[in-house]
Amino acid sequence: MAQEQWNAVDQYIADQLVTADAALEAALADSAAAGLPAINVAPNQGKLLQLLARIQGARSVLEIGTLGGYSTIWLARALPAGGRVITLEVDRKHAEVARANIARAGLSEVVEVRLGRALDLLPQLAAEGRGPFDFIFIDADKPSNPDYFAWALKLSRRGSVIVIDNVVRRGAVADAGSDDPNVQGARRLHEALAAEPRVSATAIQTVGSKGYDGFAIALVTADP
Ligand code: SAH
Ligand code: DHB
Ligand code: MG
User: Fold this and answer.
1) Which residue, 53, 56, 66, 192, is the most exposed by fewest CB within 10 angstroms?
2) In what order do the strands lie in the sheet with 135-138?
């Protein structure tokens, strides 16, 4: 019952407020056709990310966890001319599907998809002197979220915004006894956010077509 209602309301919101974009719809269709899991953000969530990036005035975006590039395209479309997205993906097939989706969206010059484990690629970005990024979206393997947050902070500046997906896990985040590594990752992420004096953070529960989960958002308030 609840899920049906959440789907209906997400559909209503999308119909009202989230303009259908042929490249985004094609990205989802081709991702499904290629057998990728449908764990992309929902359309209204993609637009939320886009709005947050625009509110921030972002010109440079880092994404951890590309999948088929759906959230990547939302974020890339937030940027002014000359803006850039770097997105990190460990799965070769996901990265290939994403590159094709990004090319069809006309964003190949804006988005760089890097293939590899994020925990290998993030130190490489730092060593190359990339960053600071204005906006960072963390949406890969959940047990690594505390590590991804630490890297995101290193690759930030005062005023950067860090958003982390899937931090509520159907409410299990409040269960201290959970042995689910994804839940433990979400709990350790909250602890890291709470303990970090250089950010101000909150988290929000979400329901919708992707079920019951949530986002955390952190504003970097001091130069790391
Ligand atoms: N941000 C996407 C969804 C990402 S799903 C969207 O909303 O459209 C999570 C992705 O993270 C998957 O494609 C998975 O292959 C990737 N991933 C998992 N572990 C990873 C790792 N260690 N390094 C980089 N990517 C990883
Ligand atoms: C999963 C990953 C996601 O990024 C998400 O939004 C939902 C589920 C997963 O790995 O199950
Ligand atoms: Mg996610």
Assistant:
1) 56
2) 111-115, 84-89, 60-64, 135-138, 161-165, 211-220, 199-208
